[in-house]
């Protein structure tokens, strides 16, 4: 278990990462605390950075952004300067919703959301391939998403002792 959290913290985190709209009183009741100690635990978890932020998860299909691609990016020359230059471009590309450096043949794996194939093609041609930094892009179009979650798997931290109340 992490030195920063105990089993009760993990139960609190499990609840609020599933539903950030729960009041402190509701969380406290579900984990068997009174509201004040529960609030102090949540505040401490925010202060130490375990809770980074609270967000609302949107349905991209209902917003017309249901075309999703995973793209492996190979840089022309994977130098420190090129890595930093490529990463600086990410803020200019709202289509890129996730980016990670990876091991293997590619340097980055991007998760990209657009309206449709044509919008992706425009992004690919006008942004990714227009850059001298990128030597190749291998695209994998998502046909159907089977599992998507933003939840951190807390059971891996706390094990089988964690119970959902």
TrEMBL record:
Gene3D superfamilies: 3.30.70.920, Winged helix-like DNA-binding domain superfamily/Winged helix DNA-binding domain. SMART domains: HTH_ASNC. The keyword Transcription regulation applies. The keyword Repressor does not apply. It holds the Pfam family AsnC_trans_reg. Residues 5-66 form the HTH asnC-type domain. It comes from the Bacteria. Keywords: DNA-binding, Transcription, Transcription regulation. This is Lrp/AsnC family transcriptional regulator. It comes from Asticcacaulis machinosus.
């Amino acid at each position: 278990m992490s030195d920063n959290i105990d089993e009760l913290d993990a139960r609190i985190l499990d609840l609020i990462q599933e539903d950030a709209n729960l009041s402190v009183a509701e969380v406290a009741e579900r984990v068997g605390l009174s509201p004040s100690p529960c609030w102090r635990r949540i505040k401490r978890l925010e202060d130490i950075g375990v809770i980074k932020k609270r967000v609302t998860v949107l349905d991209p299909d209902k917003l017309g952004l249901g075309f999703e691609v995973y793209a492996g990016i190979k840089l022309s020359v994977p130098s420190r300067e090129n890595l930093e230059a490529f990463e600086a471009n990410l803020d200019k590309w709202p289509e890129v919703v996730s980016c990670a450096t990876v091991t293997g043949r590619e340097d980055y794996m991007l998760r990209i959301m657009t309206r449709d194939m044509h919008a992706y093609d425009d992004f690919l041609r006008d942004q990714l391939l227009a850059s001298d930094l990128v030597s190749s892009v291998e695209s994998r179009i998502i046909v159907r998403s089977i599992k998507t979650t933003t939840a951190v798997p807390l059971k891996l931290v706390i094990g089988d002792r964690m119970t959902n109340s």
